[in-house]
Design a protein that fits this description.
It comes from Eruca vesicaria subsp. sativa. By secondary structure, the chain is an alpha+beta fold. It is built from 6 helices and 25 strands. It folds into 2 domains: 47 residues, no CATH class; 330 residues, Neuraminidase (6 Propeller).
Length: 410
Amino acid sequence: MNTLPGHLLDKILFKTDHRALAMLCCTNTSLQSYIQNSSFVSQYNSQIKSSLLHISTFGSHSLSYHHPHDGSRSLKTKKLSTMCHILGFCSGLLLLFIDDRLCVANPLTKKFRFLTLSDPCPQRLVRQENRNQLGLAVNQIDPTTQSFNVVYIFEVERTHETKYGFEINAGMNSWTCSKTTLTCHSSNLDGRMKSPLYLDGSLHWLRNDGSIISFNPKTEKARLIQIEFPHGLTSRTLFAPGGNSLTLVSLMDEFIYVYELKDILVDPKWVLVKQIKNGLIDKNRVNNWYIDAYNGKCLVLRSVYDGVVHVYDLSADKWVIMGSVQGWCDANQDFYLFTPSSSFVVRLDEIVNCGDRSISSLRSIMTLIDGSSPENQLKKTSVEGKEDERILLLEMLLHEQNTNKKRRVV
């Protein structure tokens, strides 16, 4: 391994599909150590592009998507057996609500876990005004293994102050009510937050006054980050992840402003880090556009008039048309820039063939995101052939390396 040029090894591995990469880890201990190195994992994951998922805020029997490798400019739709909601995502896992059942799923590994609900009325969780109370937190145990928690924030009581409580589910069949509570001045959770954001071990909930509630499900520590919104923020604003920071993205007349929360532990403040020229929108029609998604690499805008979805690539400084939302869709749509992950997650089950409608819908979602639908089989077969060639080439290089070592010993 030491004699094989690192840049050549990386070039081969970076172009290798995640499934083939997993096979290499199982068959070669030297490669396993190299592939599971945190530096390699970080570089490999940085090259994985996000898919765009799209579903009605109120739930739907249809889920639309667009794969980054798909050259067509359309959001393809998959019909589901049951009503489905997407409540959030984190580190390649989706938090779903399917047929009155809460579920955490990894579309690439085809694994899932249905969770029990402590709430006697599960539909209350997915109402538009309540759905952002539920959050998904994923912790990386090692380069290939994760664990997760689902956290539900609720008001214990409200007078001139609000007391919050937290319930935690760690993938088991029960919820634990945390002993931790947080009392602070009253303010509602902000609607510009689709779901709480996970960063540095904690979930973060935005409130109407600009303050942020932080809760770490592992240590069960909670705190209020006392901060105000940046000056001049509009209603066309999204609270979103920005790579390694909490981010506010606001649509103005001439620019789209991106703010990052800096010094979150010591002296929290919103800092303007990017201005994107608003070249798509007539300044007199700003209110007819939605900021639907942002992840630090891409920004998604949608027109109310024609439903056209535009995506801005920050690194290329370029706008492209992703596709159009179907005319029958209502205005309340959720878009997710979802980045898949092949990490193994503790306490997830395998998909099995059965007549359960929830399982059927879950299988459809996983197939859709993984891109393994019948219309993509030809493309997939071609890709798999290339992966076999790369694996063969890598094995040949390793064999040559070992032969050279033996010669030097002789």
